[in-house]
Description:
By secondary structure, the chain is α+β, with helices and mostly antiparallel strands. The model has no long low-confidence stretch (mean pLDDT about 95). The protein contains 3 helices and 5 strands. A 5-stranded antiparallel sheet has the order 2-3-1-4-5, covered by helices on one side. It has a single domain, classed as Alpha-Beta Plaits (2-Layer Sandwich).
Amino acid sequence: MGVENNECVIAVTWNDNAVKVVSDFVDGLPKEYQRLVAFIPSLVNDKTTVFMAPCGSKKGWQEDKDAQKVRDELIAIISSLDYSDGSNPFDWVEVGFGEYGQKVLRGNCRNVYSDADYAV
């Protein structure tokens, strides 16, 4: 037995060079982790969504620990693209959902509009 929870990364950008940096990172991953990452074009505004799917492992299993390392590396690559003003070409979030409930684990988005529906 083990807890079933899912973690994934969703990152969106307009910057083709930033997508290339992430794509090069993904190309260097073992094949089983490459399968978890998709690059999805938007319908408008020439954006790309990078999606890293959950690995399917139960919490605490070695596969879960290994996938967490890959998510950490992916987020480090994305974060390394920060501009000097602290902004980043990606809006990104890591989320968890399942038997632990649902939660934004980390991300770089801040509410700049104070919209009550999204206010933290």
